[in-house]
Design brief:
Bound molecules: zinc ion
CATH architecture: Alpha-Beta Barrel
Helix content: 40-55%
Oligomer: single chain
Order of helices and strands: EHHEEHEHHEHEEHEHEHEHH
Distance between the termini: 31 Å
CATH topology: TIM Barrel
CATH class: Alpha Beta
Number of domains: 1
Strand content: 5-15%
Number of helices: 11
Structural class: alpha/beta
Number of strands: 10
Length: 259
């Protein structure tokens, strides 16, 4: 049945074509796929938990500023990293891990993900995975976020085979911080729309992210005041009804790679 789904997710971060998320909502077949848990937009539950994610790092200027804010507020976040930047700034990634944050794969070169071949998908993800986890641990769920949030049916199959859980973001939690709309506006967007289980999209690289840093200083204390616990994506996934099956998938992957 799964093969029958024609899936094109196109939240194109850098494209004006997809400025209107309602247009996007009509294109995709989210609700056909979401029930299987292969692609995650959010994890609604009764628990007042949200996850904050940062894409496109590590960045030599802004990631450390973000880490400082997270440390001060004693909050853990999830960073979706670009492999070539990990290679350039490994110390920043070490700090992320040392301070208890979670890291995920965001390809090696950040290509237009819906246009690349299966072979390239494997190449882009494995190259980054080798940097993120050179020891090839299997005791955690491998997280992947496609550049621009774009996944085709073909790529989804490849990513599943590679053992990834695809993490997108709540459609109402994209404050488009990369357009620099103002720190207050970024913060208001998040705080006004927040719901249990949200996955919030921010960026720690790709330009001047000082508004994101400032916004974070507003968002974190306010979310706490509103009673929200800020957790990593993996922590949030524990509230997913199929979380145990996610682990089973991972174990199958382990067997596959054994000689
Ligand atoms: Zn990106």
């Amino acid at each position: 049945m799964f093969n029958a789904f024609r899936v094109i997710f196109s939240i194109i971060m850098c494209s004006i074509l997809f400025n209107n998320s309602k247009v996007f909502a009509e294109i995709i077949n989210r609700f056909e796929v979401e029930k299987y848990g292969d692609v995650i937009w959010e994890v609604p539950s009764k628990k007042k938990q949200v996850a904050i994610t940062f894409d496109d790092g590590p960045d030599p200027v802004y990631t450390s500023q973000i880490l400082d804010v997270l440390k001060k507020e004693e909050v853990h976040a999830t960073f979706f990293l670009i492999g070539k930047r990990v290679k350039k700034y490994p110390e920043i990634v070490k700090r992320e891990l040392r301070e208890g944050h979670e890291i995920g794969n965001h390809t090696y070169n950040h290509p237009s993900f819906h246009t690349i071949s299966r072979h390239k998908v494997v190449d882009e993800t494995r190259k980054t995975e080798h940097l993120l986890d050179p020891a090839h641990h299997t005791d955690y769920i491998k997280l992947f976020r496609p550049p621009g949030g774009t996944v085709t049916e073909k790529n989804l199959k490849v990513l599943k085979k590679e053992g990834y859980k695809i993490i997108l973001w709540s459609w109402h939690q994209d404050p488009r911080d990369w357009t620099n709309p103002g720190a207050q506006r970024i913060a208001s967007h998040i705080l006004t729309n927040v719901k249990n289980g949200d996955i919030i999209l921010l960026h720690d690289s790709g330009g001047n992210r000082s508004q994101t840093v400032l916004a974070l200083k507003i968002i974190l204390p306010k979310l706490k005041k509103m009673g929200y616990e800020i957790v990593t994506v993996d922590e949030l996934l524990k509230m997913h009804p199929r979380y145990n099956e996610f682990h089973e998938t991972k174990m199958e992957k382990k067997e596959e790679i054994l000689p």
